[in-house]
Write a structure and sequence with these properties.
2% strand, disordered N terminus, mainly alpha, 9 helices
């Protein structure tokens, strides 16, 4: 998911970060954008960028995977869970992330971002309440923890204890998978917990790849260096050489998780 800078970052009216001056001439042909999926600046294109499409799809896939593990899969709670997590993660979390520090450099007004975050969280909570009425009290802890994770992670509350690699993996990997499973079954199982651990690992890998990529794209003004091979060949280092393997891996992983979720949905609901 999109992640903002460290605690104490300036608000949306602050000066641009050093990465805002990153140019293709200085760092490579594709490194000027704040993310590989970011569109050119523009009113509607800013909203595309704000959604972090590959990452949003990736983490919504955990919702589908969690539901697909249930002995009996029901479409209605699956759709409700997908909408709830899209509102909470795709909209609210990313709007709060952009409000704090403008990592994506969009021109969406700060008030609009806060309104989107509030509406997204309210919608997700409303769907969660409907889920509690259908499934029972077992969903209440998930209903409480979900909004807390969104706000605590993106606002770096509680001393930033949630805004860590482990916090990211638990909040955007394990949590949606387990919530979706419980929405189907009303209980956890050994299999769902193991799948939650797998989602944790995949999300931790995502964070390990995206963190250095964001460092280059958003906080660097130039990248220079060289690699001297054993045979004496010298390879120049620029932003594209650093970003290439990181972002190819992120693309491959995001597509793979989405396709896995789609395959499970087709197999269980087809």
């Amino acid at each position: 998911m999109g992640e903002q800078p460290a605690a104490g970052v300036p608000g949306p009216d602050a000066e641009p970060s050093p990465g805002a001056g990153l140019t293709a001439a200085a760092t490579g042909s594709g490194a000027a954008r704040p993310a590989y999926y970011a569109a050119r600046p523009g009113r509607l294109r800013d909203w595309w960028t704000l959604l972090h499409p590959p990452y949003t799809a990736w983490h919504l896939s955990y919702v589908v995977i969690g539901a697909s593990l249930a002995p009996h899969v029901t479409l209605q709670p699956l759709v409700a869970a997908l909408i709830a997590f899209f509102l909470a993660v795709g909209l609210a979390a990313h709007a709060l992330d952009e409000f704090h520090g403008r990592p994506l450099r969009t021109q969406i007004p700060g008030g609009v971002l806060l309104a989107v975050a509030a509406v997204g969280l309210a919608g997700a909570i409303g769907l969660g309440v409907a889920g509690v009425l259908r499934v029972g009290w077992v969903l209440i802890p998930f209903l409480v923890v979900g909004p807390v994770l969104v706000v605590a992670y993106n606002a770096e509350l509680f001393g930033g204890i949630v805004h860590t690699d482990a916090g990211f993996a638990a909040a955007w990997g394990t949590f949606p998978l387990l919530t979706s499973y419980v929405a189907q079954t009303g209980a956890l199982s050994a299999g769902s917990v193991l799948a939650g651990a797998a989602a944790f690992g995949l999300s931790a890998a995502q964070r390990s790849l995206s963190t250095p990529a964001r460092l280059v794209r958003r906080r660097s003004t130039s990248v220079t260096g060289r690699i001297t091979l054993a045979d004496g060949e010298v390879l120049a280092i620029d932003a594209d050489r650093l970003l290439g393997p990181l972002e190819r891996a992120l693309r491959a992983m995001s597509w793979s998780v989405v396709l896995l979720a789609a395959a499970l949905a087709v197999a269980r609901l087809g």
